Amino acid sequence: MALKFSYKVDPKGVPQLIPMGKINKITKSEDNNKNDNKQIQIILDDLENLVGLYNVKKIVYEIQAFIKIQKKRKEENLLCESLVLHMIFKGNPGTGKTTVARNIGSLFKELKILDKGHIVEVERADLVGEYIGHTALKTREQIKKALGGILFIDEAYSLARGGEKDFGKEAIDVLVKSMEDYKNELILILAGYKNEMDSFMKINPGLQSRFPIHIDFPDYSLTELMQIAELMLKEREYTLSNDGKLNLQNILKTKAYNNPYFGNARMVRNLIEKSIRSQAVRLIEKDNITRDDLIQITLEDIKNAFQEI
Hints:
Elements: E1 4-9, E2 15-20, H1 28-48, H2 54-75, E3 87-91, H3 97-110, E4 119-122, H4 124-127, H5 134-146, E5 149-154, H6 168-181, E6 186-192, H7 194-203, H8 205-208, E7 213-217, H9 222-235, E8 239-240, H10 242-258, H11 265-284, H12 291-295, E9 296-297, H13 299-308
Helix pairs in contact: 1-3, 5-6, 9-11, 10-13, 11-13
Organism: Desulfonispora thiosulfatigenes DSM 11270
Protein name: Stage V sporulation protein K
Keywords: ATP-binding, Nucleotide-binding
């Protein structure tokens, strides 16, 4: 309903509008909530715009809904589930694990789960030392950097590969203790190949209960890989020629289905970046370079990039 006004004239002859009815003032808290919700939606939109990863997106939406509803239950003095949000990411390289981890960090910051929402990416060499006591020191340093955000450990199963006397076991012990000591300040994400991560969790059964969220990252389909390639080019203001597109599709199909170490989106990015450099070499000696020349990536550029990679 529109707010109605009357008016009166002040002693100087200036008319003044007077509202008829109640004005609902927007409080600072309400305004902050609106801004928070807007930021959350921006983050979720960024997630939605990622190619593929349908089940991954579904799980992230579920986590977000779970957190918000538990907060509502707390406000109503209802029993709440504990927010244990440590995660296991399983999938081949280049399937979006790090990208989604960054997205989750930003989301958790807006949901007031994490103070900073940043991500610290580490691997075995960043955690495991060379002598007794060195590992605990290195691991604690990385944990300290990650407080208020996410500690993302790639190829986490490598921490358990050396047996009982390996210093990797010490790193695991420090990490497990930190999950309790900093349960409201740190989220741990362990990532790696699916089979290796499954074996790792069996070797360390105590970890299973500490990581309630397991997310599988499937390999991209050929169609999705082409979409990723075209998005990367579009963001950089390039296009693929028709024969270049066919050649790239053939390369990806061959690599995707015949090579167990295919890098998924990482391989696509390497190809695209190398193709752009190949185009630059091709054009630099040309006279009268047109706008179309600068934009188009050709069959020759794709072939040269693939040969070098």
